[in-house]
Amino acid sequence: MGYFSPGDVVLRREVLHGRPWSVMPLRVVEDGPDLLVTFSVPGTVLGFPPHHRPHGWQLKGNTVWRGHGRLQLHRPDLAYSVDLFWHGPQRRFAGWYLNLQDPFRRTPEGFDTLDHELDYEVAPDGTWQELDREDFERQVVEGKYSAEQAESIRATGREVVAMLTAGTTWWDPAWARWEPDPDWPVPVLPEGWEDYPQP
């Protein structure tokens, strides 16, 4: 399977218990053997296929991406993405957000993954904090993750903590100065997106 080109629209599917759980069209910023970078364009509408467990964003009415957008850095086989956010009218860099998730799996339309709830927030000055541990453990009890999956996620969390504590982060700080192409229109879900092949 080949790489995508800058500006391409790809679909990021979250897959839970073998079925698509949420679908979001993204713009490709960079793609290659070592790094996939995507951008969530403000105003993008998310899709939620029928599922026995409704998506949390869907339940909260969060169906449109807002703010300045989200840049995501993905490395192959890594069980988290590094997300960048900006705030305010001056588009101030807000920091790095390590979003634990399944390693991305390429598809003809984009890639599949699954958010793991547990996250780590890194401020521009390098200080960091863990987020959503209680929510993650609750979801384990509720059956969102198997015991084996849960332990793998906890192990990834420990690896992230060791990296942040040692100050050995791998991403290029220059991404904090990145700006989206102003000519990029808001991507939309393609016709028939609900009927794409199952994972």
TrEMBL record:
Pfam families: DUF402
Occurrences of domain DUF402 (ranges): 54-167
GO molecular function: hydrolase activity
Keyword line: Hydrolase
InterPro entries noted in UniProt: DUF402, FomD-like_sf, Ntdp-like
Protein name (record): DUF402 domain-containing protein
Organism: Saccharothrix coeruleofusca
Record lineage: Bacteria, Bacillati, Actinomycetota, Actinomycetes, Pseudonocardiales
